[in-house]
Design a protein that fits this description.
By secondary structure, the protein is α/β, with parallel strands linked by helices. It is built from nine helices and ten strands. The protein has two domains: 172 residues, 3-Layer(aba) Sandwich (Rossmann fold), CATH 3.40.50; 90 residues, 2-Layer Sandwich (Pantoate--beta-alanine Ligase, Chain: A,domain 2), CATH 3.30.1300.10. The strands form two sheets. It has a six-stranded parallel beta sheet with strand order 1-4-3-2-5-6, sandwiched between helices. The protein has a four-stranded antiparallel beta sheet with strand order 8-7-9-10. The mean pLDDT is 97. The protein binds adenosine monophosphate. Adenosine monophosphate binds next to helix 2 and strand 5.
């Protein structure tokens, strides 16, 4: 696997793959890679002949006072795990070159960016859409891979790709979890031992809600309220719990199969996200 740090080298490497008629798969990340990221790499590798992974801690998507400065950075370890997962090219742009002085363009995906994470973190999805649009134009992939853990992000990217006619396929892969259910996240390293134990209540409460919906609870507000209470009882501070239609991010008016239940909680200073998709009613 090769590592490139500037646009000219990226274009040369991807151009070489294109001349060999290899399909290009792309996974944008912020590094501190775990099995969730690597599942995307493996999925891309099963569908594309040439897999590009970017690692860039994007300042545009962090608000003042968030964890941009302390976000984990470990490029060498990441490069080694990417190589063993089968990635072909690591693109790790240098921040000062990626956003040159005077950079002033942004991509704003209205509507799907407004609720949930967008409401909790104003400007976050503008930063995400801007960096992903720029990376798509730089890499020029045939397919791009994202994790369902960041559900609203997938809706924002899908909408942007549709609205701006990016010529690529967006693939959404399932959330990869630790043994106790906690969704893998680069931010899990911030958790102390006690916080890590408490954090498992997030997925547990969402799984319970999915079971209640499968057993016949169709009222989305009741499902949200019960989940919120369960999270609070486990000592988690709840930012939101929302039953939503995942494509539009609109609040669901019925807790039916395909509706997502998404939650954000805080454990100490660490914010954790997760979601489940409701399933068919179980036949007794
Ligand atoms: P990040 O480095 O956090 O920006 O994530 C890069 C990509 O990996 C995004 O598409 C995430 O949704 C995805 N991802 C992060 N955690 C997981 C996980 N536990 N399972 C599957 N995909 C994930």
């Amino acid at each position: 696997m090769k590592t490139v740090r500037d646009l000219a080298a990226l274009r040369e490497a991807v151009g070489g793959a294109r001349r060999e008629a290899r399909r290009v798969g792309f996974i944008p990340t912020m590094g501190a890679l775990h099995d969730g990221h690597l599942s995307l790499v493996r999925r891309a590798k099963s569908e594309c002949g040439f897999v590009v992974v970017s690692i860039f801690v994007n300042p545009l998507q962090f608000a003042a006072g968030e964890d941009f400065d302390r976000y984990p950075r470990r490029l060498e370890v990441d490069a080694a795990v990417l190589e063993s997962a089968g990635a072909d090219l690591l693109y790790a742009p240098v921040p000062a070159n990626f956003y040159p002085p005077g950079f002033s363009t942004s991509v704003d995906v209205a509507d799907v960016s407004d609720g949930g994470e967008g409401a909790a973190r104003p400007g976050h999805f503008r930063g995400v859409a801007t960096v992903v649009a720029k990376l798509f134009l730089q890499v020029g992939p045939d397919a791009a891979y994202f994790g369902r853990k960041d559900l609203q992000q997938t809706a924002v990217i899908r909408r942007m790709v549709r609205d701006l006619d990016f010529p690529l396929r967006v693939v959404i892969a399932e959330t990869v979890r630790e043994a106790d259910g906690l969704a893998m996240s680069s931010r899990n390293v911030y958790l102390s031992g006690e916080q890590r134990t408490r954090a498992a209540a997030l997925s547990r409460a969402l799984f319970h809600a999915r079971d209640r919906a499968a057993a016949g609870q169709t009222d989305p507000r009741a499902l949200e309220d019960e989940t919120r209470r369960e999270l609070e009882a486990a000592g988690l501070s709840v930012d939101y719990v929302e039953a939503i239609e995942a494509g539009s991010m609109a609040r669901a008016d019925r807790a039916s199969p395909g509706i997502a239940l998404a939650a954000a909680v805080r454990v100490g200073k660490t914010r954790l996200l997760d979601n489940v998709v409701l399933e068919e009613r179980k036949t007794p």
